[in-house]
Specification:
The complex is a heterodimer of chains A (160) and B (129). Chain A has 160 residues and is mainly α. In chain A, 72% of the residues lie in helices and 0% in strands. In chain A, helix 4 runs antiparallel to helix 5 and helix 4 (66-94) runs parallel beside helix 6 (127-153). Classes of the chains: A mainly alpha (160), B mainly alpha (129).
Amino acid sequence: MSTAAPQPTAGGPAEARLGAEAAMAQMGMTFSRDNRCFIVAAQVYLMLAGLGLPINGSLLSDSASRPAFLHLFTLGFLLMMIYGIGGHMLPRFTGNPIREGAWPWLQMGLVHAGAASFVAGYFAGWHGLVVAGAILAWLSLAMFAARVWPVLWGSPGGTR
Amino acid sequence: MHKRNRLFVSIALVYGLLGGLIAITRLIDPGLLPGNVPRAHGHIMLLGFILMMVYGIALHVLPRFGGFPLYSERMADWQLYLANAGLPLMVAGWLGWRDSLVLAGGVLSYGAIVLFGLNMILTVVGRKK
């Protein structure tokens, strides 16, 4: 990766665009560590969700475990793929940086705790655990939305 | 990124949060919301969160990956309008036990799906208007 890219400067639209391009040049194409972990975790959840096929004969069986396997697929696989790919691609599409630091790791902790509690609650028949898991997963989505919103609607090249 | 595509992604996030809230409300007190709540939740998450996210990202990247400009910006704009008219109607129909609303919303949502599908096909094969 080049280290000689022009630095972001304050000023008019042309300078802002130059700053955005400079920031983009520093981003690179490869996943950051947090997004890499989201993608890896998504594949693990996909394999767990797929266990419903040999166990129940269907991903959407009529058994009591239906919500557990369904949400392993949606909360575990689909949502984490969106977290990983969205968190990687959207800043590159808009030129705006995404909040990093502890935020993505907190988001990851919430979604893992949420999915695990939700699924364990269904298997164990503990309704309180299901509700707690759903709330934790929802908080992770709220955190993702809070991280992505400035990426979508901030000004290109702006620092945040 | 085109404003319409940013709107698709933003609306997807709003639908995701709304669909989650509906499900949590139902889990806490099944009698609090009327109607077919699980079906409304499922469609808000699939048509609202996942599909709108796909719409926003795909409308941005597929023309670039395909090497041709988007076939029709107007089709994509109407896709946004139809998708966001259709889903609220469907949800209102399920929560209010109104099959006619579900049907009307389904037709509008399907219209958005067809516009997206045709627009993407014509974009990646490089058909000129």
